[in-house]
Amino acid sequence: MTQLRVAIFLLLLLYNHIAQGQLHPYSPAVYRRLPSLREQAAILDGWRDGRVARIPALLNKYNIQAWLISQREYAEDTIWWSVKSATEYAPHRRTVLLFHTNTSSLAGQPNPLRWVDNTGAVWPELRTILHAYNPRRIALNTDKDVAFGGGLHVGEYEVLARELGEGWMERTVNEPMLGIELVAARVPDQLEYYRELQETTWALIEEAFSERVIDPGTTTTEDVEWWYREKMLLLNVTTWNHPRVSVITPESFPGWAGTKDVIREGDLLHVDFGITAIGLNTDVQHMAYVLRTSEGEVDAPTGLKEGIEKANRMQDIVLARMRAGKTGNEILKESLDQMKLEGIQGQVYSHPIGDWGHSAGAVVGFTNLPEHVPVLGELPVQPNTYYSIELYAYSFVSERNETLRFRLEENAYWDAETEGWRFVYGRQERLHLINATRPSHRPSFVVQP
After folding, report:
1. Rounded CA gap, 178 and 81, in Å?
2. Are strands 138-139 and 66-72 parallel, antiparallel or unpaired?
3. Exposed / middle / buried, residue 374 (Cβ in 10 Å: 0-12, 13-18, 19+)
4. Which of 70, 106, 136, 268 is most enclosed, with most CB atoms within 10 A?
């Protein structure tokens, strides 16, 4: 009977983990090996093909018959990076792309039609094709507010106006949702690779926030930042944002730089960074505590643990209110209202992620716009996408007699089967503990001065 009760308990525990997917992983993260570069190129091109295949339906959704993208080398349209081949590093000369609905005179033609030109030969050919196809509405990426709908450079716009003429330019429209929906949508088979990138991100954090890297009283926050950069090179990944490592104080606020401190026993540490590989980006924030081992401390103070729990509760609140079709501002207001009901103070500033660190779609708050975000906050959340759940909770730490911001960030995806958001790899629910119990030990990986 006792064995049966144990078995039932373990099954319930497993069910809870599977159903909610919100737990701090049980085992340490490991560095995941990426496919070879050649294999990655094939994977990326497959994802690109799947994405481009959606464009005709996307054009029909917005009653647009053609989407014209014109760019020059080193002056790329933002959308270029989501539709190029894996072995292209820049558009050559002037590269012109014409996406269409695969109907009328362009039925069965390549999509997009593509020209690489530095002679001007593209323009009469393009005019001839437009004349036969006769699109009523032609999208140009001219949006003033949305980067994924505003990638057409001014010089290129002037060339288009001159070469196409007034008649065709009168048919041009600005529709930023084309770029937003194209970039935001997850590609099939992508999640397994993204989960491995997330685990590698966690493995980097777990190693950095340990005595293998940090020697209290000697190692600085900047040392740890550059350790991340060096270690990433060894793993064949890069980053879209320099790692930011900070010693947390009551004055600490989310920003664009870490602190310049020597790390000491009793410090509360924070890191904000992500990695870039195989066309994807991660963005994670974790916290760590440096044990006062010289005083016999073996665990973090209770007040610090309570702060993490409050931030976890905020994550639950935000994810429970995020649904496709809602605007970022609607989700933000509902989340702040629920936080107020529960007596939680903090701030939400979550954003899409995936192809870019700050990717296409609705934002849910900004650090400098905590209650309402013009334009980007009015966009609808897209279905089948990734989000970075970024926020902080205020929590009073009685052991320190101070109120601190507990800043966490994890990446999540929409799970159509459960109709809910799940963290890609997990979320931090306990502090990383830096335990200098071996005074003679020195970090095995040291950034040279």
Report:
1. 15
2. parallel
3. exposed
4. 70
* pLDDT at residue 212 greater than cutoff 70: yes
Q: Identity (one letter) of the amino acid at 272?
A: D
Angle at 16 (CA atoms; ends 20, 384), nearest 5 degrees: 20
Rg (the chain; Cα; Å):
25
> Look-up: residue for tokens 């974790």?
286
How far apart, in whole angstroms, are the C-alpha atoms of residue 276 and residue 274?
Answer: 7
In sequence order, the β-bridge partners of residue 277 are: 280
At residue 161, φ and ψ (nearest 5 deg) are -60, -40
Question: Could you tell me which residues come within 8 angstroms of residue 281 by beta carbon, excluding any fewer than 6 positions away?
Answer: 240, 274, 275, 353, 354, 355, 356, 357, 359
Q: Which residues contact 389 (CB under 8 A, 6 or more apart)?
A: 315, 318, 319, 350, 408, 409, 410, 411, 412, 423
Q: How confident is the model at residue 12 (pLDDT cuts 50, 70, 90)?
A: very low
CA–CA distances in Å: residue 127 to residues 99, 156, 162: 15, 16, 12
Residue 267 CB-density burial (10 A; 0-12 exposed, 13-18 middle, 19+ buried): buried
Taking all residues of the chain, what is their mean pLDDT, rounded to a whole number? 91
pLDDT over 90 (residue 67): yes
Work out the burial of residue 241: count CB atoms within 10 Å of its CB; fewer than 13 is exposed, 13-18 middle, 19 or more buried: middle
Give the H/E segment covering residue 405: strand 402-415
Helix and strand element counts for the chain (H, E): 11, 16
Q: Decide if pLDDT at 139 tops 50.
A: yes
Structure tokens that stand for 385 in this block:
């996408």
163 and 123 in contact (C-beta within 8 Å)?
yes
Residue 8 reports pLDDT greater than 60: no
Is the separation of the CB atoms in 249 and 209 below 8 Å? no
Residue 16 has pLDDT above 60, yes or no: no
Greater confidence (360 vs 12) lies with: 360
CB 232 within 8 A of CB 204: yes
Residue whose structure tokens are 């020597």: 262
Report how far apart the first and last C-alpha atoms of the chain are (Å, whole number).
62
Alpha helical stretches, state H, 209-363? 221-234, 302-321, 328-341
How far CA 348 is from CA of 15, 219, 296, in Å, comes to: 29, 32, 37
3-state secondary structure of 194: helix
Which tokens go with 175?
Answer: 């529709």
